[in-house]
Specification:
The structure holds two protein chains of two kinds. By secondary structure, chain A is of the alpha+beta class. In chain A, 38% of the residues lie in helices and 19% in strands. In chain A, α1 packs antiparallel against α2 and α2 runs antiparallel to α3. By secondary structure, chain B is mainly alpha-helical. The two termini of chain B are 15 Å apart. The chains are: A alpha+beta, B mainly alpha.
Amino acid sequence: MMSGRWRGVATLALFLGLGLLLSGSALAEDAAAPANKYPGVEGYWLPEGASSYAKTIDDLFYLILYLTGAVFIATESLLVFFLIKYRKQEGRKAIYSHGSHRLEMIWTLTPALILCGIAIIQKGAWDEIKGSVPTDDTVQIKLYGEQFQWNFRYAGADGKFNTKDDIFEKGMLVVPVNKNIVIEQTSKDVIHSFFLPYMRLKQDLVPGMQIKVWFKPIKSTADMQSRRSKDWDYEIVCAELCGLGHSEMRGVMKVLEQKDYDAWLTKRSKQFFDEEIEISPLWEHWKVDEAGNRVIEEKKEEKKDEKKEH
Amino acid sequence: MSNAEASHGHDHGDGDHGHSHGDHGHHEPSFFFKYVWSTDHKTIGKQFLITGLIWLMIGGALALGVRWHLAWPKADVPFMGQIPNEKYNMLFTMHASIMIFFVIIPLLAGAFGNFLIPLMIGARDMAFPWLNALSYWLMWPAMMIMVASFFAPEGAAQSGWTAYPMLALFSPGSAQTGTKIWFSTTEPNLLYNGQTLWLMGVMLVGFSSVFGSLNYVVTIIKMRAPGMTMFRMPLSVWSLFITAILALFSTPVLTGTLFMQFMDRVAGTSFFNPGGLFLTSGAAMHAAGGGKVLLWQHLFWFYSHPAVYLMVLPAMGMVSDIMAVFARKPIFGYRPMIYSIASIAGLGFIVWAHHMFQSGMNPALGMTFMVSTMFIALPSAIKVFNWLGTLWGGNITFSTPMLFAISFVSMFIIGGLSGIFMAATPVDMFIHDTYFIVAHIHYVVFCGTVMAIFGSIFYWFPKMYGRMMNETLGKIHWFLTFVFMNGTFFAMHMVGLGGLPRRYASYLKFDTFAHLQPMNVMITVSAICLGFTQFLFLANFFYSMFWGPKAAQNPWNSNTLEWTDAPSPAGHGNWPGQVPTVYRPPYEYSSPEVAEDWLPQSKKLATAAGE
């Protein structure tokens, strides 16, 4: 019968496939330069990583891709192989088997260990990205989301919030490269979600909550533009359905070299200090103290005071 | 634990059964009691089936509206014209709501649960036939409410099927934005508006689901035929049993949660409103505050995560049965299969916040859900391996039901593996709310469950209607569906990895996504082809119902009771003579005890008394 030979061929194919996958990953690692490890062609794949933790996230993604890819190839090949080999033939009965305890143990424990491993591997990354916010070398910014706009407040040239030189930008986030950008965000109406694809950052803006997120851009806008066009900008994408303007809630992020950032900061601060630009009354609803912490207003009606105890 | 007393009691005609028909099979019930208010589980099952298939078409049409608009945002959509963004939001909201609550759950639990359970365990009907009829007819007010919502002032629900506050609370016709009129056909009002009607409709579906599930659990525990122990039940019945328990525990939470949102919208309570919010439009805020936006998400997902297992477990059970029959082999690992179903159901209760990793909940909490979510992949993997084991060494016939069952397994592998990416929280930070998620959803629900439903309809059609569906047309439908569904949904993984967000009307405003548009167009073209292919199935289904070739009692040479002991179609009381007695488990195919490659559960052998 052909069965022995076919079995050998199939096994060989499976191992070859697995081998190709694993070696392919090794090749990719060697070939790419560290600064641009996963070169982002604007193609049907992950966009170019531009933050300090983008690589960690992408590495985890690729690990899972290789593992699941190997499982996919193995199981689907086996499926097709069985369909061909065990198709109906006259005068033949199927193998009368109810199962195998040994196989059940193997294919329970092996995936369990792999899944455990993936869980353990990523804990550090999650703690680092969402579980904590850096305290050194930071730039603090406030984000107040609304239907359908991103509103940013900067401390201004004096570095203190709630002073005359605070900068208020509609839809534009300006940050220096290679610094930890810490953004405290909330929403004034519905849930939005602050998504920076190239930074890999996503965090929902929840009405009633102040949430801090952080990222460290490692590629300036100019750097990215050099590979694209001079009109290109990092875009801020809203990633939680927020109403009829959800698909139009575009913001822009400018990642500037430190000296350009300082220049922008000084100039813009002065404009607000000199009252050349009107501040939106929107910001009345999100007061901050000098340190930048939110000031919860004491309401005039007593009833509301009691409710705030929750 | 068989229950001879229960089946004897039924033979004598217990109260429910006797009263609702007026007589116990001695004269024909009137048209109304036979086809409309029927308490016969088979008729109720068929009612759920037809209604479910109709809503499948409606939900599919809405999806095509979504896809058309995404591919060609400026063009007119056929039959709908230009679609402003608020109408677009209605399209995907209602598409999802209809598919989940009016198609998948009613087809799996309502149609197959009702039709199969008594037949496969050797009962004459369900434990509570009247409650059963009620569970079907409760769907009708729910359906009419959903249809009505499209005509309400400001239109149908438009806050996503997940109905997150505060968007769902600010949707037109809410006390939260100062609406005071109770009812109007022209202005935003508290009762007749899309979101509030949505809440009411889904609450009714919840009741229907709970009534049905109660019936299934009691029937399976109490009304099995003599010799039908729990571990001799086919996997279809096991999966429906565990699914029913799942529904019983989780649905009441949904009902309560929906009611809380209903109160917020209609009575101005603040379950979910933290207070201090305001809309740019200037609509006044009328909330005492003190609520939490995230509370909705926790409560909603506490139900909706088990709900997704509700939407796949019965499919898995039925696929197992079909595969055993057409591979002519016992199921590989029958008990591990059952334990896996139970594990999926149990673990399904402790993974809900994986929908909320980026929601603002405590990241440490997210870590615990990440672990449980990783582990829920395990029983699904075990099931896939056992299906492969069932195929190994088989004598496989590639009938239409078998093609659908095999494609369920192969597609479920993809859907399940993509879940692992989402379980990894740092990766989820990027792919959450992108098309990667949409791809995963549709792989498990369409490429998985819907394929299983098609296969199961083909397989049990002779028992339902006494005729065979057309094999050739069936195979063409299968092949085209397989090709187009992969074309539609696989590409969504890729655009999702590009960062393409969900629930967007168009991507015209963003340079970041401009290069993904050609693939969006391709997905739409594939989806349109997929939609039209389904007419082949409908044609086959309805034509064969009246003019298909008459079926033998057991055209598949299957071992299970519905095939071996009931005629095709099964008649009133299911078993023409006595209730059958069961001697062995359901998958004794290719047994060495007999010459044929099948050995019915109810066949008494001369020598041994079965296992």
